[in-house]
Amino acid sequence: MQITKDAETRTPRGMSRSGMVLFSYGFRPFFLAAALWAIVSIGLWAAFLNYGVMVAGDYGTLYWHAHEMLFGFAPAVLAGFLLTAIPNWTGRLPIAGPPLVGLFAVWSIGRIAMLTSSGVWVTAAVFMDSLFLPLMLVLSAREVIAGRKWKDLKVVGGLAVLSFANIFFHFEVLAVGSPELGMRLGLGAYVLLVTIVGGRILPSFTRNWINQRGRTDFPVPYSRFDAATIIVGAVSLAAWAISPGSIATGLSAAAAAVMNGIRLIRWRGWTTWPEPILFVLHAAYGFIPLGFAAVAFGSVGLSQVAVLHLFAIGAMSMMMLAVMTRASRGHTGRKLKSSPTTNTSYVVLAVVALLRPAAELVPAFTMQLLTLSALGWSVAFGLFALEHAPFLCRNRKPLAARQP
């Protein structure tokens, strides 16, 4: 999220000053709900794995789990990000108050509907779940176009792909029986969004941090190489979604892995090691080249489930946790410093990002690794909720009251 120094030190423009504080800005309800849903949904999944507890009725517990990670939890984080970032990009007023309550209700109804889907209710549940992403697409497109921020239409395009992927995921579950294409298409859209938005925030935040310390070893500015890297990544992700085992997919993924690795090195993330709340952004992006390398190996036999989780937990969820902690602190008037609790959540989720794919590679310990991964996931987002819920539910901290 592109946050200027001025935006971090003043009362957010257009923020609702009446009604519940929780609905005064988009990041507040959606970040908190995303963390809580991450814990609840993975807890239900663990209950199914260990005790056979069925959820989501006729939709199927396995497919419900995959859907809620990609199209339940993740869209909430994305909504919180976009509802806060787009006003900064466009200079327009953010959505707050009753309209935000309504938008949040649409997301919440989708979660309840999917959780209780069974029998003839499945079709209605799918319809209600399918409303949120297109609604976010329309709202985001309206703001970007009204603000004439044409370069940000790339993000709107990502939302369009996600909206289609969610609907296609449902179609595959109900009509085909296996949502593999919808799953890879949705995850690929998130990975592409990370490469686009990450290219804006990582070098910017890193440059500011280095500059504040009187140094000049800045990240390499955005160039044609970055644009080429995004394009190659998009082509590779599309190929992976359509034909994950093809040689063409493997070759394009190998190229994307190398180019994203070079891109990450150009941002000089290792210099930010003393600042965990910044370093974690680089660490999360590091799963992008690692994920593409896994796609390349997947074309010659690596488990596709392992590839999926390397992207889903490492690149997508870890980046989301990093953005959630930074934005929650910055936009509630707290100092942009991560606490030991936050740092622990970063480390735990990074370990989970490696453990969960390993469950597919070590069959003798699959169940133990799955259980540990579920526990670690819950701990990581539980720590976020424990520390940040008070920030998200209370008024912004006045500038004069901040710690130096």
Summarize the structure.
This protein is 73% helix and 0% strand. It has 15 helices and no strands.
Write up what this structure looks like:
The chain is an all-alpha fold. Helices cover 73% and strands 0% of the residues. It has helices at 5-9, 27-51, 61-90, 98-115, 121-129, 132-146, 153-176, 180-212, 224-242, 247-266, 276-285, 287-298, 304-330, 340-358, 366-393. Helix 8 runs antiparallel to helix 11 (276-285) and helix 14 (340-358) packs antiparallel against helix 15 (366-393). The two termini are 24 Å apart. Mean pLDDT is 91; it is low at 1-16 and 399-404.
**Which series of helices and strands comes N to C?**
HHHHHHHHHHHHHHH
Radius of gyration: 20 Å
Quickly count the helices. Answer: 15
Content-based structural category: mainly alpha
Beta-strand content estimate:
under 5%
Q: Outline the biggest β-sheet.
A: none
What overall geometry do the principal axes of the alpha carbons give?
Answer: globular
Gap between N and C termini, in Å? 24 Å
Q: State the low-pLDDT regions, or none.
A: 1-16, 399-404
Helix content: over 70%
Strand element count: 0
Tell me, rounded to a whole number, the average pLDDT.
91
